[in-house]
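During the reporting period the student researcher (J.K.) took over the structure-prediction task from the postdoctoral fellow and processed the backlog of single-chain submissions. One of the processed entries is reproduced below for the supervisory committee.
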Amino acid sequence: MTTYRAPRTLGEAQALLQTAPRDLLVLAGGTDLMVREGAAVRDRPVLDVSRVGELARVSLDGDTLVLGAGVTYAMCLTEPVIRRAAPLLVEVAHRFASPLIRNVATLGGNVANASPAGDGVAALWALDAEVEAWTPDGASRHAIAHLVTGPGQVALPAGSLLTAFLIPVAAAGEGSAFYKLVNRAWPEHPMAISVASVVVRLRLDARGRVGMARIVLGAAAPTPVRALAAEAALAGEVPTPERVSQAAALVVEVARPIDDVRASADYRRAVLPAVARVALGRAVARASGRSGLRGPGAPAAGLARDVRG
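J.K. obtained the following structure tokens:
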């Protein structure tokens, strides 16, 4: 293939991928690729899939939200079906970079980039999303947890293309929240990469007990990681402030942070429980409202506070 190709259909993109060299770069929004320098991108062929309409589809299939891998973060803010079916993605998009970047940055690009601090990767994991991909051997489906294997690494062969995300629609009694700490005056400033982040999705039953919990950490390990011990501490329990604090303290058990220009590993370990406490508090408050719980027996809605407080 030539140095640059921009197919307009998925079939055309697949045909080009079948004969593409192994050093092919796939361009969706380009918010990461276009700022790279040096041998990593120089003189490599580019397949620009940003014009493939099928990759930007948004639809409901029963109780499943289907989002093309080319859906942008701006679309997450404006598409009514996404706002109803996956409010967590709306919150993540609201705190994702600037309007200019959100207009071109895609869900598929964020996942394929496989950054340990990727906000979209952690959110899709918490949503139990599955990923559909086209590979030279045919179509395949993967859980996010099995797809992202390391920084910049995904478990797909060369010449593959992410095509869609399948996300269970948010159920009654479900609440979610995303909190990221950054090195800015506003701890959740969207224009900065996360120092540490926590995504929470949980569901309360009619008695106000946790029937399901997902807690995913970002910028805390080589990949986003689920805090299973923290989830287990909430299972079947009323999420009182005390119970939430106990669960939040357990998230460090799975943390494997690094020292980098944004923070030290020790700092990340120190703040993760506080970040988790904020996210859990917000998710509990939202789940309480959606499950109709009111009065003294409802889980506390005022738990969330700034990690600096």
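The committee noted the following: Residues 1 and 20 are 6 Å apart (CA to CA).
J.K. will present the remaining backlog at the next meeting.
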